[in-house]
Amino acid sequence: ARKRAEEKFPGVAFELEQDPDVLDTWFSSGLWPFALMGWPENTDDFEKYYPTSLLETGNDILFFWVARMVMLGMHLTGKVPFAKVFCHAMIRDANGRKMSKSLGNVIDPIDVIQGISLDDLHAKLVSGNLDPREVSKAKEGQIKDFPEGIPECGTDALRFALCAYPLASSDIKLDIQRVDGYRKFCNKLWNATRFALMKLGDDFVPQAEAQLTGRESLAELWILHRLNVAIRDVNAALADMNFMAATTAIYGFWLNELCDIFIEYIKPVTAPGANPEACSSAQQTLYTCLDQGLRMLHPLMPFVTEELWQRLPRRASENKPSISIAA
C-alpha cells in the first residue's frame, strides 16, 4: 500500500492508517450464526433460535468457515452454534469435471429450470467476463455437452434430481438428461392425478378420517400397505438425511405401484355399471393414496405437489390451507 501511494503521489508526505472496522472475510462470516440474531444484544430471536440445530454446507470449507463458526460461537456466546453439520456433495458436470467457464461446462440452475438454446448458451459466454481467447474453447465444450441446448426441466425436477444422487459420494456428476427424466416424472404425476380425479367424480366426498371400513378389496389392502411402507421408508430416510433413499421410495411408490398397478386396477372397478359398493371403496382408497402420496413427495417436489393437492377435495377433519402445512 505504501509503495502504491508513493508511486501515485511522489514527493508528498503521508501517513498510512489501517481501517479499524475491517474483519477478515472468514472470521466475519464466522459470526453469522449469532450475529444475524441480533448479537451482541440479547434479542428475542437470539434467545429463541440460538443455538440452531443443523448447518448445511460443503466439505471444502469445513476449516475456513465451519470451524471458525464453532470457535467464535463458543468463545463469544458460550454455546456451540449448531448441533449437526450436513455436508452436501460438490456438483460437477456429467463427465465428472469441475465446472469451469473456460471449459464451457458451467450449468446455471436457472437455465436448467427455464431451458436455454445452444445459441443463447454461446451468447452468455460472449457477454460474460471470459477471456476472448477462451471463448472458442468454451463453445466447443458447450456443443459437446449440450448439442440441443438445455431443455426446460422446471424447479421440482432439478430439486428431485439433486436429492436422488448417492449421499456417500463427494461429487455429483450432474446429467441434464437425468433431470429431464424427472421432468417427465412430474408430467406422470400430473396426468395420473388428473385421471384419478376424473375417476373420483365431481360429487366425491372423502371419508372424514382415513381409516379402513372392512369393505376393502385385496388390491386396496395391498396398495395401502405399500403406501405405509413408503411413508415409513421416507420418514426414516429424511430423519437420516439420506435423500437418495427418500427419492427411491417415493419414485417407486408413485410410478411402479400406484400408477402402474393400482390405477390400472380401478379402471374397471369404477367404470359405469360396476358394483357401487366396490366402486366407492376403491375411490376412497385412491383418494387416500393421492392425498398421502402428495404429502410424502412435497418436501422434494414442493410446487407440483401444492398445485395438485389444492385440486383434491378435503376431508371434513382437514382444515390446513396448504400442503406445506398439512404435510
β-strand number: 4
Radius of gyration, Cα only, in angstroms? Answer: 27 Å
Structural class: mainly alpha
The residue fraction in helices comes out at: 55-70%
Q: Globular, elongated, flat, extended or rod-shaped: what is the shape? A: extended
Nearest-integer average pLDDT: 91
Main β-sheet, spatial strand arrangement: 1-2
Q: Given the structure, what is the number of helices? A: 15
The succession of helices and strands, N to C, reads: HHHHEHEEHHHHEHHHHHH
Q: pLDDT below 50 for ≥5 consecutive residues: which ranges?
A: none
The gist of it:
The chain is mainly alpha-helical and 327 residues long. The chain contains 15 helices and four strands.
Structure, explained:
The chain has 327 residues and is mainly alpha-helical. Helices cover 57% and strands 6% of the residues. It has helices at residues 2-8, 25-29, 32-35, 44-49, 62-77, 109-114, 118-127, 132-145, 155-163, 176-200, 218-239, 243-269, 276-297, 302-309, 323-326; strands at residues 52-58, 82-88, 90-92, 171-173. Strands 1-2 form a two-stranded parallel sheet. The relative contact order is 0.08.
Annotate the secondary structure layout:
Blueprint: H1 2-8, H2 25-29, H3 32-35, H4 44-49, E1 52-58, H5 62-77, E2 82-88, E3 90-92, H6 109-114, H7 118-127, H8 132-145, H9 155-163, E4 171-173, H10 176-200, H11 218-239, H12 243-269, H13 276-297, H14 302-309, H15 323-326
Parallel strand pairs: 1-2, 3-4
Helix pairs in contact: 7-8, 9-10, 10-12, 10-13, 11-12, 11-13, 12-13, 13-14
